[in-house]
Fold this sequence. Notes:
Blueprint: H1 14-21, H2 25-31, H3 40-53, H4 59-66, E1 71-76, H5 83-97, E2 101-106, H6 114-121, E3 127-131, H7 137-146, E4 150-153, E5 163-167, H8 169-182, E6 188-192, H9 198-213, E7 220-223, H10 229-240, E8 248-251, H11 254-266, E9 276-281, E10 294-297, H12 300-311, H13 315-318, E11 325-328, E12 331-333, H14 341-348
Parallel strand pairs: 1-2, 1-3, 3-4, 4-5, 5-11, 6-7, 6-8, 8-9, 9-10
Antiparallel strand pairs: 10-12
Amino acid sequence: MDGGVISKKPSVTSSQVADHAGVSQSAVSRTFTPGASISPKTRAKVLAAAKELGYRPNAIARSLITSRSRIIAVVMAYLENLFYPDVLEELGRRLSAENYHVLLFTGFKDRDSDPVFDQLMQYRVDGIILASTSLSSELSEECTAAGIPVVLFNRYVPNLKVTAICCDNVAGGRVVAEYLHDTAHVRPAYVGGEHDATTNLDRARGFTGRLQELGVALHAHEAGGAFSYTAGYSAADRLVRQSVRPDSIFFASDVMAVGGVDAIRAANLRVPDDISVIGFDDVPMASWPSYELTTVRQPITQMVDETAKILDFDKSAIKKPFRKILFMNGMLVERKTVMDRRRRLSLARPAQA
């Protein structure tokens, strides 16, 4: 150290490791390349030399040689919907098992990922996962030209030539409608998230469409405007102030439903005795004892597995990007926020003489 400045030690090179271990430089490269062929004895010698010299492989330098960075860009416009931290954790675990690294881009206000596109492309990423955001058709074509696979996670854009992995939100909405009908609810309401998100539109479409088939009128449709606690709380607060309240509310996400439960309780009403509540996603908070929320579980593990399959291309496959929309079935999880009103109705009927 000189004058308070800490000098940086020169990096150890792979050729130095090779000389120290008495092997070729290609043997060092194969040792640190996942899946490469190398004998256990040679690998042990290289690892011992690398540890002694303090060598760490340079992933950036390797990417210049192999044209593969093994970096996957994950783009999320926001994390306030608690579904996405779960997705990020599962993606990180799954891609790490495939020897990929996750580079996260988040915190931008636009729901379109175009503003961060130039930034993420500077990292020579091998693939892009877009969750809670989308991209324009122009950038989609640019990715195709560059041979970079793009996956839209949990949403899709009609007519955009990009692979999308989604829960079947229409089917999920239909299941909720049938469940409320089967439990004798007659004034169901829907509280939506982002107005233009396919997740919101499809859940609403499945819910209202199935209610209509069952002969049940939708009592109210509240536009939450965001998949957030505040949006759910505000929408529920408006609904409970109506002269005729709904007897059940289907929220477009769990975090919204949690906000809704708190708003209902703040109005001195009980869940589910006065108003039943159903969410969508099955985030960890949904099972907390203070909520025990009935919800539709998204198949995150299966969705992530399919995403990993699409991104794990060999070079020939990269030239022909995979394009389709894959819908996967969710599952209704019954907890304690829905009242079975059939029992209440049977108790209210006078006994037969």
